[in-house]
Amino acid sequence: MTASFAETKLLLFRRLKYILRRPKPPVLPVPFAGPVVVVGSAPVSHKPIDFDETFRVITINGSQAVTRKWGIAVPDVTLMQYRQLDGTNTNAVEVRRVLKGERTGMLYVLLWRKGLASLNEHLKAFDYQYDRVQIVNRYERIALVERICGLKVLELDAISKCSNGVIAVLFALLNGATAVIISGINPQSTGHVYNQENLSRLHVEMDSEILLTLLRKGYPVYTADPEVAKSIGLPLWEGSARSNSAAV
User: β-pairing, 103-110 with 77-81?
Assistant: First the structure.
């Protein structure tokens, strides 16, 4: 009974705060004008067919460990969860290890509440640099999901919210991507490419629901990973020419 009351109270609080704030989702200073690859940290990932300099790249947390092997020194955009900056668990420590000395173009730090000065101190601690930075709060995330999917996901717990990788997919669509190709994002997988801990993933059901919603709405979302195409039904990216002809 107590838990149910607490959940109801949180739901009402979030809903009211969302209405009063009227948040807007994050928008790039200059929108995308072509295909965008969103790269996650699942153990298996593939560079998209026909990948070249016309593609923009979004990395999530420590997935620069993947794009570095693709020859990409600096991704265009990085989404980083706040816990990766000050957390002491295995995943956070590993993320800081693989990002030490790296940089990105536009850095979005999700749910950071300690201010920009503290954020820069934490980034400096592992020598991570950026061209521009913006803190994205919970309600801006909620607004992003609602804008693209029409779903009001109030993020009451880990299970009921989507992962940062899927947030990046929505972000790319909002910001003008002509196609979004995901790589290393598999709702059914466990573990991360940059460690051997085989840590479980949250958000499995919500990620799958959001991706399938995008398909139903006709958004140009693909996967570069054959196993993801089989497991959740996303179309496999076969190169820009074939994908464009299939869409006509």
Answer: parallel
Whether the predicted pLDDT of 3 surpasses 80 = no
Query: What is the share, in percent, of the chain residues with pLDDT greater than 70?
Result: 90
* Per-residue pLDDT tens digits for 142-184: 999 999 999 988 877 777 788 999 999 999 999 999 999 999 9
Q: Domains along the chain?
A: 33-240 (3.90.1480.10)
First and final C-alpha spacing in the chain = 54
Give CA–CA dist 207/231, Å, rounded.
13
- Measured on CA atoms in the order 8, 12, 214, 34, is the torsion positive or negative? negative
Q: Which residues pair with 133 in a beta bridge?
A: 107
Alpha helix (H) ranges present in the chain? 2-21, 64-67, 83-86, 90-99, 115-125, 138-149, 164-174, 204-216, 226-232, 240-247
Residue 110 vs residues 78, 136, 220: alpha-carbon distances, Å:
10, 5, 25
Is the pLDDT at 192 greater than 90? The verdict is no
Give tens-digit pLDDT for 107-147: 999 999 999 999 999 999 999 999 999 999 999 999 999 99
**Long-range Cβ contacts of 25-28 (<8 Å, 24+ apart):** 25/140, 25/141, 25/143, 25/144, 25/147, 25/170, 25/171, 25/174, 26/108, 26/134, 26/136, 26/140, 26/144, 26/171, 27/174, 27/175, 28/77, 28/106, 28/175
Prediction pTM value: 0.89
